[in-house]
Amino acid sequence: MAEKMVIFATHGGEDPEKATLPFVVGNAALAMDVQVTIVLQSMGVMLAKKGCYDHIYASGFDSVKKMVDSFIEFGGQIFVCIPCIESRKITPDLLIDKAQLVKAGKVVQEVLEAKAVLNY
Asked: Which of 21, 28, 73 is nearest to 47 (CA)?
């Protein structure tokens, strides 16, 4: 079985560097044949909102859009916290296509199966 990593992303456009780093590390791990799930919580859910992540850039890195698209293309999973989008009045149709809506139980399951868990 492949190694698994879970990365929590809790920042969006308000902190471009912290919004970018989960996808930098996630893409690197995918290149090393690690299964990666990025869990978007709190303001991090904005990274899955269509059109929103297009405008997030951190100095020295590719755009978040480019990194998210690569992450999905290479098999990464993106989980989006249901209560977090509901509290921000974001409906599922406003999210990128590969975003998977989850609640805490699914997140706990992923964490228990992971070899490494990171938080940004």
From this structure: 21
